Task: inverse folding
């Protein structure tokens, strides 16, 4: 924890670099279990032995080992890309976040600082809670995890990701409401300031994403496409900021991408026209192929949004892993000289990640527009198939 | 495995966040922005097409004025030409008239001169006749005094006087 704190600022600088080296991270992960096992073993030996000088020396050595092996890149990286109930700022300082639990005995709201970074249980009027592996569990009287009770509580806490998400929402609302206001103030004039920075992007979504895929019906779906594009993009960008208001892995979280994919699925299904449904239930093939093709088409309805979900999740997570891995190299080799290689690489990957942040938002929006376009297709266009 | 297991909390909050965004931005941002963009594009298109129209109008006007100029030039040329012809005619006419007049006057003068000449001659002749008679009278008178001399005188006188 301490070491993570020490180099978190560095990591932040390099967040972008990680995407390219994602294979490397697999190797890093593999080292982890063996080290932990070693140090425990060493501790055990020390207690059993008499306190002779030799043994004492050994013990010291093993303790040192244990301390140094605390730096575990895969643990660090996984901790970063996972969600957590407090927001680590620097060193031992964390921002406590509200815990909100929906339990059979009512709603429970308290600060995550009561858990003392997950080290202590916290007892409310109803239950005793503890954080184990980023999950809130219920403890019974004997301080053991009460699996049955844990299953009944629903954790809707403002976690690090939720907090970051809300910051992004506030930013988006601020940016676009002020831009919309600018449009009201500059009617008939050229765009000014921030407005002229946002306008080309809006026009890009409209002219290069919506219009080619949706044709004349594009206007109806513009709010959805613009919202989804900027929502993904801003969360991607916030994830690239190494320190406090950013740094969370929101758009690389499967829950986030799942919701977006689900919304896209609903939009596609609700707007599906005659052509769309006839493609699924009455494809243009001989009737005896129906038993084979209809299930495939139905399956296809779900694979499209699932692909959207996995693509965004995997790309953004890979980017974070890559940057963190590169920075971890310095601590794995315990040499500042490695920084001369790792830092430029991290900067390089970070720049690529900036591109990926835009690209993934674009691809998600593009494919959503494409799928919606297929759903709202007019009958005459379908004759070409 | 935790990585690919969506947590209910984040699903819940993402859904709420997305719904807030799509409703608030849809109503207060995307709608006015898209509308403003469409309006601006329309006004630019209108301005361009009216500029195109104005240009066409200008070309048309230019052509027209050029045409007018051409016609005016031709007219001017014709007028000038006509005027010149008229002047030439006038001069020629005047010259002709003057000539005839002069000729007439010359002819008249000639006739006058002839008449005067004839009259003068007639007078000369009558004077000569008178002189002759006078002479003859004188002579006769002298002769009447001296017959012989008279006769000689007559003869002399006659020698002197020559009828021209």
Result:
């Amino acid at each position: 924890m301490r070491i993570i704190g020490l180099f978190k600022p560095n990591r932040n600088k390099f967040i972008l670099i990680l995407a390219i080296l994602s294979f490397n991270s697999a190797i890093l992960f593999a080292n982890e279990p063996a080290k932990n096992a070693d140090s425990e073993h060493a501790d055990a030996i020390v207690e059993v032995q008499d306190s002779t000088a030799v043994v004492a020396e050994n013990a010291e050595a093993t303790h040192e080992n244990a301390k140094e092996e605390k730096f575990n890149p895969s643990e660090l990286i996984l901790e970063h890309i996972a969600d957590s109930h407090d927001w680590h700022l620097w060193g031992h300082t964390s921002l406590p976040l509200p815990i909100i639990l929906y339990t059979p005995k009512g709603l429970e709201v308290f600060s995550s600082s009561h858990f003392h970074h997950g080290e202590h249980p916290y007892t409310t009027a109803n239950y005793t809670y503890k954080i184990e592996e980023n999950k809130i569990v219920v403890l019974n009287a004997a301080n053991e995890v009460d699996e049955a009770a844990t299953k009944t509580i629903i954790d809707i806490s403002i976690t690090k990701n939720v907090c970051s998400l809300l910051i992004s929402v506030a930013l988006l609302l601020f940016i676009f409401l002020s831009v919309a206001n600018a449009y009201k103030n500059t009617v008939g004039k050229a765009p000014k300031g921030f407005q002229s920075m946002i306008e080309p992007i809006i026009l890009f979504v409209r002219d290069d994403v919506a219009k080619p895929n949706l044709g004349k019906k594009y206007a109806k779906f513009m709010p959805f496409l613009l919202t989804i594009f900027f929502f993904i993009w801003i969360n991607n960008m916030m994830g690239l900021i190494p320190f406090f208001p950013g740094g969370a892995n929101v758009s690389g979280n499967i829950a986030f991408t799942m919701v977006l994919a689900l919304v896209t699925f609903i939009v596609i299904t609700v707007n599906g026209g005659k052509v769309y449904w006839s493609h699924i239930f009455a494809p243009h093939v001989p009737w005896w192929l129906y038993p084979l093709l209809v299930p495939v088409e139905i399956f296809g309805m779900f694979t499209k949004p699932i692909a959207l979900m996995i693509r965004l999740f995997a790309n953004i997570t890979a980017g974070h892993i890559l940057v963190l891995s590169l920075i971890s190299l310095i601590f794995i080799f315990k040499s500042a000289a490695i920084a001369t290689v790792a830092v430029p690489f991290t900067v390089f990957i970070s720049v690529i990640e900036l591109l990926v942040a835009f690209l993934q938002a674009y691809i998600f929006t593009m494919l959503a527009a494409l799928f919606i376009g297929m759903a709202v297709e007019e009958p005459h266009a379908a004759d070409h198939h | 495995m935790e990585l690919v297991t969506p947590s209910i909390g984040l699903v819940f909050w993402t859904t709420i966040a997305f719904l807030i965004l799509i409703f608030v931005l849809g109503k207060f941002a995307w709608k006015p922005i898209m509308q403003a963009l469409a309006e601006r594009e329309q006004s630019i298109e209108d301005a361009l097409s009216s500029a195109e129209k104005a240009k066409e109008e200008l070309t048309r006007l230019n052509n027209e004025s050029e045409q007018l100029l051409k016609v005016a030039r031709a007219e001017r040329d014709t007028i000038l030409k006509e005027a010149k012809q008229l002047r030439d005619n006038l001069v020629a006419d005047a010259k002709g008239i003057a000539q005839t007049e002069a000729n007439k006057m010359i002819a008249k003068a000639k006739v006058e001169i002839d008449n005067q000449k004839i009259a003068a001659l007639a007078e000369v002749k009558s004077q000569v006749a008178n002189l002759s008679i006078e002479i003859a009278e004188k002579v006769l008178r002298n002769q009447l005094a001296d017959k012989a001399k008279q006769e000689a005188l007559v003869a002399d006188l006659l020698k002197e006087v020559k009828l021209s």
Observations:
- The longest helix of chain B spans residues 8-145.
- DSSP finds two helices and no strands in chain B.
- The mean pLDDT of chain B is 89.
- Helices of chain B lie at 8-145, 147-160.
